[in-house]
Amino acid sequence: MLTLKYSDYAFEAGTDEAGRGCLAGPVTAAAVILPDNFELDLLNDSKQLSEKIREKLKPAIEEGSVAFAVTHLTPETIDEINILNASIKAMQECIIKLNPTPHYIIVDGNRFKPVNNIPYATIIKGDGKYLSIAAASVLAKTYRDEYMNKIHEEFPMYNWKKNKGYPTQEHREAIRKYGTTKYHRMSFRLLPEQLKLDL
């Protein structure tokens, strides 16, 4: 069973991101504030759920939450500030969009940077421990998948509809064959035999 809250603050936001390890597409974060009486069967870390269940949970999370926000950060931003900083920035932007402003933030993972002096805790595997982080992980994943399905129409040869930009063998083959697109992260090792430049 996932726990509702970590702190005693009235408005506690959980935040998480999706797409950190992808070769293409944005890194997407979500933040969610849940009410004290929130219950949702099946809600868990999005990686443990099927796409069908995530799609079913998404509207229930949106309707049941006090507030939620989602942010996509582009491959350009990822290349500019690196994926770790982009993941944190995407989560911070979600927090800023929340209304009401949270009194406390719980973050999936072990890295975060303060935003507007709001106290926070980083929780490793938090998406499998706290409902708000699990809810944020589901929103981040479903919104990012939607985005990847949309850009798939533009460049169907990479099959983003299926691999969502992750480094599958098929995705790497397509990069080898067709080169890169504006949606690819140029700072990533797109092909295994690329020489790594320390920029």
UniProtKB/TrEMBL annotation:
EC class of the enzyme, as a word: hydrolase
- Pfam families tied to this protein: RNase_HII
Hydrolase listed as a keyword: yes
Q: Which residues bind a divalent metal cation?
A: D16, E17, D108
Q: What is its EC number?
A: 3.1.26.4
* Cofactor(s) listed: Mg(2+); Mn(2+)
Gene Ontology annotations for the cellular component aspect, listed alphabetically: cytoplasm; ribonuclease H2 complex
Instruction: Write down the chemical reaction(s) this protein catalyses.
Output: Endonucleolytic cleavage to 5'-phosphomonoester
Keywords, comma-separated and alphabetical: Cytoplasm, Endonuclease, Hydrolase, Manganese, Metal-binding, Nuclease
Is Endoplasmic reticulum among this UniProt entry's keywords?
A: no
Enumerate the Gene3D superfamilies for this protein: Ribonuclease H-like superfamily/Ribonuclease H (3.30.420.10)
Q: Which range is the signal sequence, renumbered to this chain? A: none
- Highest taxon, organism lineage: Bacteria
**CC cofactor note:** Manganese or magnesium. Binds 1 divalent metal ion per monomer in the absence of substrate. May bind a second metal ion after substrate binding.
Q: InterPro entries from the entry? A: RNase_HII (IPR022898), RNase_HII/HIII (IPR001352), RNase_HII/HIII_dom (IPR024567), RNaseH-like_sf (IPR012337), RNaseH_sf (IPR036397)
Q: Tell me the compartments it is located in.
A: Cytoplasm
Pinpoint the RNase H type-2 domain residues.
Answer: 10-199
Matching entries from PROSITE patterns are given as:
RNASE_H_2
Q: Alphabetically, which GO biological process terms does the record hold?
A: DNA replication, removal of RNA primer; mismatch repair
GO terms, molecular function? manganese ion binding; RNA binding; RNA-DNA hybrid ribonuclease activity
Q: Which residues cross the membrane?
A: none
* Purpose of the protein: Endonuclease that specifically degrades the RNA of RNA-DNA hybrids.
Q: Entry's PANTHER family?
A: RIBONUCLEASE H2 SUBUNIT A (PTHR10954), RIBONUCLEASE HII (PTHR10954:SF18)
- Which family does the UniProt entry place this protein in? Belongs to the RNase HII family.
Identify this protein by name: Ribonuclease HII
Protein source organism: Flavobacterium silvisoli
